Amino acid sequence: MSAAARRCRRCWRRPRTWTRVFAPCVFLLAVFVAAGEARGQSRGSILVQSTTSAENSGLYDFILPRFRAESGWSVRVVAVGSGQALRNARDGNADLVIVHDPAAEEEFVSAGFGVARHPFMYNDYVLVGPGRDPAAVRDAATAADAFGRIAAAGVTFISRGDDSGTHRRELGLWGLDVGGEWYRESGSGMGATLNLAVALDGYTLSDRATWAAFANKGGLEILYEERGGGGGGDLFNQYSVIRVNPELHPHVEGGGAAEFVGWLLSAGGREAIEAFRVGGEQVFFANSEE
Fold this sequence. Notes:
Blueprint: H1 3-40, E1 44-50, H2 52-56, H3 59-71, E2 73-79, H4 82-90, E3 96-99, H5 102-110, E4 114-130, H6 143-153, E5 157-159, H7 165-174, E6 183-185, H8 190-200, E7 204-207, H9 208-213, E8 220-225, E9 236-244, H10 254-265, H11 267-275, E10 285-286
Parallel strand pairs: 1-2, 1-3, 5-6
Antiparallel strand pairs: 3-9, 4-7, 4-8, 4-9, 4-10
Helix pairs in contact: 10-11
């Protein structure tokens, strides 16, 4: 065999030698990558119609990555007022809803649009207004008294006016028909309503979580609040989760929605809710195990 031929045979053998050395490494690397992809693989997406307060507070940014890491399900949130969230869900534009309007929730379930109602966390409402407090709300004995003082003084109050859970609670606290130049409606979510209250130096009702996360407080302060824990009260604010009925809307993601509800009610879900803070303050509290 010529020298040139021997050189060609050596060149041919060399790649085969490298293949024998590195092929097992390449195979193991592929196995590890595949295993990692399996652990982080998405199982699909769940659509939630939610009250704005859970979104605006940053709660979902905190808890949803935990749920996805444990389950593989991703969650997409549409944040609107509770009334609009329930209407969207009635039309089948949700897999589940998270809202805070108990009467409307029970009606939603009894009409067959929802599978079951599960209270899973709560907080409270606070009445905020200008620090100078022209209606003397700080001296009020009850929430109804505080609202009565605002009406009697005829000072600016900003209502959400959007059929949200907060709006419905506010309407129930007046004890009278309200109207006039002093009573204004934003027709928007809680953040926009608070901004308008700051601009007009007026009063408004807010859930505590949105107020805590709101950066543009201006001259507004909490002027009336109830710290009654989970025992109720006029300003108690209960949140519930409801699965949309798949018999009415077969296209909904029933399996993923059921897993998310189960997680919210589980020890892990309750722990995640309890761990969430806004500026060091706990603003949501998990309900006891059902």
